[in-house]
Specification:
- By secondary structure, the chain is mostly helical.
- It has two domains: 47 residues; 44 residues, no CATH class.
- It is 56% helix and 8% strand.
- The protein is built from three helices and four strands.
- The strands form two sheets. Strands 1-2 form a two-stranded antiparallel ribbon. Strands 3-4 form a two-stranded antiparallel ribbon.
- The mean pLDDT is 85.
C-alpha cells in the first residue's frame, strides 16, 4: 500500500511541474470517456434494449424467395394477400420512409 501512495504522490508532483501535459492528458481522458459513453448509448438503444412492443421476440420479417436468392421487396397485392391469409396476428408494411 505504501508503494501505491508513493507512486501517487510522485504522479501528482510530475503533473504539477508540467501543466501543459496535465491539460492535454485530462482532455484526452475526457474525450475518451465521452466517446465511450456516446457509443455505448447508441449500442444500448439499438442492439441491447428490447423493442418497445409486447412480445417483441415474435416479430418476423416476411420476404419473397427467388431462385437467385431472397427478395427485398413485395408488391402491394402480395402484401394484401399475406394480410388476408390471417396466418399472423397482424401484418404491416414499411419502406425506408417509415411504416405504411
Amino acid at each position: 500500500m505504501e508503494t501505491i501512495l508513493a507512486d501517487l504522490r510522485q504522479a501528482i508532483r510530475v503533473l504539477r511541474i508540467s501543466p501543459g501535459f496535465t491539460l492535454v492528458a485530462a482532455l484526452v481522458l475526457a474525450l475518451g470517456v465521452g466517446a465511450n459513453t456516446a457509443i455505448f448509448s447508441v449500442v444500448n438503444a439499438v442492439l441491447l434494449k428490447p423493442l418497445p412492443y409486447p412480445q417483441s421476440d415474435r416479430i418476423m420479417r416476411i420476404a419473397r424467395h427467388f431462385k437467385e436468392g431472397n427478395g427485398n421487396s413485395a408488391s402491394i397485392p402480395k402484401f394484401m394477400a399475406w394480410r388476408q391469409a390471417r396466418v399472423f396476428d397482424s401484418v404491416a408494411a414499411y419502406d425506408f420512409a417509415g411504416p405504411a
